[in-house]
Amino acid sequence: MRLLRSTDLALRLLMRLAVAGGGSSPTTREVAADMDVPYTHAAKVVAELQHLGLVDARRGRGGGLTLTEKGRTASVGTLVRTFEGDGDVVDCEGATPCPLNSGCRLRGALRRAQEAFFATLDPVTVADIVAEPTGALLLGISKGPGAV
Length: 148
Hints:
The protein is mainly alpha-helical. It contains eight helices and two strands; from the N terminus they run H-H-H-E-E-H-H-H-H-H.
């Protein structure tokens, strides 16, 4: 299973904000540049994270992005489900439906594997994934002050 770019960016952005110093509130533009992604893509992810209550975004002088307490304690499994959606790993009923659809056991096996994947991530929080030594590593690979 491969995560969507938006899921990957959301997780990396939350990690970045989780290790940012108290006075460091990067802007969406700075985060996009630091992570080498288009600004528009970063802005969409930030908007979704803000809608979920995981990130505060303030405009203007002294503005920027900060991680909320809800963001710090958010379940990685829930985040991945939210960004990935709950669709099947394979599309058996797409434009050209699979002829094995009515008697295939693969679809069910893949669905169980997908749920096991999510279940493994459910107890893991954003705070967990930036605990030492990861937090120090994130700060160590910064391009600039407070950047990832």
